[in-house]
Design goal:
The protein has about 260 residues and is an alpha/beta fold. The chain has 8 helices and 10 strands. Strands 5-4-3-10-9 form a 5-stranded parallel β-sheet. A 3-stranded parallel β-sheet has the order 6-7-8, with helices on one face. The protein has a two-stranded antiparallel sheet with strand order 1-2.
Length: about 260
């Protein structure tokens, strides 16, 4: 299978994991490593990656091939997101980012796509490699591509819901609408959800809660790894056509007559 390429960055794994909701950084590290992921998202407004005088998530991923993917969770305007990423790049040198601008903080955590597009237009001109969290709307996905993002990340269902993909058709429509990678983000609940996303043609999957909140996060991380691989292979192989009637698995010609 070909590598996943996001802007100038290439990855062998098509699974991206999050860092929130784990009981401790050690479990975060163990689950991330066994998942095979090479990217872990970090909400820089909530998790320390810049202050070296306090426990720092970056320290747990030293001597690994896993990159930190800062995200702007907790930002509600384009200005907040832009400022956040400027500070992150100044402090860490990281320019690969996950852009999130939330519109509804009370119930759905749905993105404010207008503010997201405004952010993307500025950040892309400043040289950031942008992965943008968005709604499952192919029109918005195309607008984000035009704004300069390097990957679109449509939600499968509300963040942390575990409901899986609620609108499979829109994921397909988004894949058809843009030329950049499509990473299904938010709402994945178990490995089969990740497999379905990949079978639909998604270029990758991002999941956090499904792993961190599992009874055994490390085992679930491994399951997600295999789910993404299986879904990608199934997509590339081309599934059989669905039929409304039965077709015998064995041929009926040349059978022995009694």
């Amino acid at each position: 299978m070909h590598n996943l390429q996001i802007g100038k960055y290439k990855f062998n794994s098509r699974l991206i994991v999050g860092s929130g909701k784990y009981r401790d950084f050690a479990t975060t590290r163990e689950a991330t490593i066994i998942s095979g992921s090479e990217l872990i998202t970090v909400a820089v407004r909530r998790v320390n990656i810049t202050n070296r005088n306090e426990e720092n998530l970056l320290d747990y991923f030293k001597n690994t091939n896993i990159k930190i993917l800062p995200n702007s969770a907790g930002c509600f305007t384009a200005e907040e997101a832009i400022t956040t990423f400027r500070l992150v790049r100044e402090a860490t040198g990281i320019d690969l980012i996950k852009l999130e601008v939330i519109g509804d903080s009370k119930k759905t955590l749905y993105p404010d796509v207008i503010e997201t597009i405004k952010s993307a237009e500025v950040l892309s001109k400043e040289g950031f490699t942008i992965m943008a969290y968005t709604s499952d709307d192919p029109i918005i996905a195309k607008r984000l591509e035009d704004a300069g993002v390097h990957a679109v990340m449509p939600l499968a269902s509300p963040i942390g819901s575990g409901l899986g993909i609620q609108n499979k058709f829109n994921i397909v429509f988004i894949k058809e609408a843009v030329k950049i990678p499509v990473i299904v983000d938010a709402g994945v609940g178990t490995a089969s959800d990740a497999t379905i996303a990949m079978e639909l043609g998604a270029d990758g999957v991002l999941t956090n809660s499904a792993i961190a909140l599992a009874n055994d996060p490390v085992k679930m991380a491994e399951a997600m790894k295999h789910g993404v691989i299986a879904g990608r292979l199934a997509y590339l192989s081309g599934r059989m056509a669905k039929k409304p009637y039965a077709t015998a698995s064995s041929p009926t010609t040349g059978i022995i007559q009694f």
